[in-house]
Amino acid sequence: MRLQFLGTGGYHPNERRHTACLLLPDHGIALDAGTGFFRVQKRLNTDTLDVFLSHAHLDHVCGLTFFLVPILNGDVRKVRIHGSKQTLDAVRSHLFDEAIFPVDPPYEWCELPEGQHVDIADGGKLSWTQLEHPGGSIGYRLDWPGHSLAYITDTTAPGNYLPFISGVDVLIHECYFPDDMGEWASKTGHSSATAVAHVAKQCGAKRLYLVHADPQHPEDDPIGMDGIRKIFPDSELAEDLLEIDF
After folding, report:
1. Most CB within 10 Å of its CB: which of 30, 121, 187, 200?
2. How many CA within 13 A on the CB side of residue 189?
3. Nearest 10 degrees: CA dihedral of 149, 85, 19, 8?
4. Which burial class, exposed, middle or buried, applies to 45 when counting CB atoms under 10 A from its CB (0-12, 13-18, 19+)?
5. CATH of 2-239, one of 2.60.15.10, 1.20.120.660, 3.60.15.10, 1.10.3720.10
6. Can you give the residue ranges of every domain in the chain?
7. What is the signed CA dihedral for 141, 143, 146, 147, rounded to 10 degrees?
């Protein structure tokens, strides 16, 4: 299984990190469509694309406006956008309002059925859970025989999602703040370093990749990785264009 980190920052892009987008290029699955979504076109190895949105904040959806060319060229024959009804309604009525984006993209809009999962390629399944965040957010888990991945973004750790991510092979979790700014985590609906490390340890994850870094800090380590690794050694701050196998 291959996973590519196409956008690892939060709020707005900077010279180092674009905003939220993950891609499984061989399965035709993207998680979120922030500014990093422009990179999907050259990396996708399927002629269909399923995009699963965590929520409708612009740093997670604005890239949906970037994908007309591969559709019009026939490189991709079908694009399905999945999310909650609230998220899909917001994206369709605002991001794709004619005054903002005058072309109605030929996307299929797919509301996530409550309390269920969807089947994905190679005998896998994708499931979801509600997260605490202003305006709401969704966490995703992808399971195949012998492989699993969870994507938890835009929420304050720890939360009631711990059972949902139990035993996952790869945990991708947002971490916007270092510990000395931890008070801002609960104020803004985001997470800080030590709390995320404890989540990874408590859920029994094998690997932890941190995303959604504060764009005001483009340095190598804006969140304090040494402290995180003392709690959960197999941790890494994901960078744009990182590719992993799991």
Report:
1. 30
2. 16
3. -10
4. exposed
5. 3.60.15.10
6. 2-239
7. -50
Determine the average pLDDT of the residues in 34-38: 98
- 129-145: average pLDDT: 96
State the DSSP code for 206.
S
Q: What angle do CA 208, 111, 78 make, to 5 degrees?
A: 85
Q: Are 67 and 42 a contacting pair, CB within 8 Å?
A: no
> What local confidence, expressed as pLDDT, does residue 115 receive?
78
Rounded to whole angstroms, the Cα distance separating 90 from 167 reads 34
In this predicted model, what pLDDT tens digit does every residue of 156-194 receive, in sequence order? Answer: 999 999 999 999 999 999 999 999 988 888 889 999 999
Q: Are 46 and 29 in contact (CB under 8 A)?
A: no
Separation between Cα atoms, residue 232 and residue 181, nearest integer Å: 20
Q: What predicted TM-score, i.e. pTM, was given to this entire model?
A: 0.97
Sign of CA dihedral 36, 41, 44, 47: positive
Q: Hey, what are 135's tokens?
A: 């305006």
Residue pLDDT, tens place only, 38-91? 999 999 999 999 999 999 999 999 999 999 999 999 999 999 999 999 999 999
